[in-house]
Design a protein that fits this description.
It is a single chain. With 69 residues, the chain is mainly α. The protein contains five helices and no strands. The chain has helices spanning 4-11, 15-22, 26-34, 41-50, 55-59. It starts with a helix and ends in a 10-residue tail after the last helix.
């Protein structure tokens, strides 16, 4: 599972506000947070930039790296 919700909550912003910043719908943010949608590379990059972190940190678990997960 990704960490979008964790970062969003830590930043104190709503799904709607994040959606506006990313130029996507609120439903896209909901689907991303629930793991029902995979972000495009462009959206993943924008999220990483917005939260001042890496794509890997948001979307890949450290325990899963190198294990084919």
């Amino acid at each position: 599972m990704n960490k979008i919700k964790t970062y969003r909550m830590a930043a104190g912003i709503s799904q709607e506000a994040l959606a506006e910043e990313m130029d996507v719908t609120r439903q896209t943010i909901i689907s991303l947070e629930k793991g029902k949608y995979t972000a495009s590379l462009n959206l993943a990059y924008k999220l990483a930039q917005y939260f001042d972190t890496t794509i890997e940190d948001i979307f890949f678990s450290k325990s899963g790296i190198g294990k084919g997960v």
